[in-house]
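Chapter summary example.
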Amino acid sequence: MLPIGSELSVPRSFYLHKGAYLGEGRVLHNHSERGEEVVTLEQFANGGAITVTQYGIEDMAAFFARVAETLANPGRYDFIRNNCDHTVNRLRTGIAKSPQVLAWGCATLALATTAYLLLRSGK
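The structure predicted for these 123 residues follows.
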């Protein structure tokens, strides 16, 4: 039995797709083509293995208020500003953030800096 509000993850090619468990086998996620929507656990998994990344939620009333706001005005998917990570964190905490985008950004910056330094040193 999954606790309501849990953050669920399914591995994709280069990232973890995330959703928030609403109960009764339903997940709110942000699909790259359809935006924020509610789907079944099976649809969310899309053949992958679901992992619970964060269990439950502290403030159930605030969580469901944010779910209602999201369903009343679902957002479109945007890799940088509104991806599945942003959606789940906003629902669970009220703060839209994406640790995965931050990690990708840091890795890109590190690679670019290394390339620049190597080119500058003539190696």
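To summarize the output: Residues 99-121 form the longest helix (23 residues).
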